[in-house]
Amino acid sequence: MGYMEDSAQQRKQRQFLDAVEHSVHDINHEVIHAVLPRMDKTTFMKMARSVAQIRIKYIAATAAALASGEAPSPQQAAQLKQLREQFEESRTGFDALKRAISRGYIDVGD
Q: The whole model's pTM is what?
C-alpha cells in the first residue's frame, strides 16, 4: 500500500470515528437527558457534601482502626471495607455525573 492509499485510509478511519463519536454523544444525551434533564447548583452541592461526608466516615474509621498501631480486627476490617466501598461508589457516581454535565448530557441551571 502506497503513501496516498495509507493517507486515504487514515482519513476514512478518522471520519468514521468522528461520525461514531458524534452518534454516541447523541445517544448519551438522549438517554441521560430523558432521566435527568436538569441539574441545579443547590442539588449538585448537596451531592458533593454527601460524598465528602461519606469520605470522612471512611477516613475517621480508618484512623480509629489504625491508631493503636495494631492491625485492624476482622470486624474493623469488614467495617472499613464497607465504608471504602460506599465512598468509592459515591465518588465514582459523582464523577460520572460531573462528566455527564461537562459533556452536555444534562442541562444546568442556577
A: 0.82
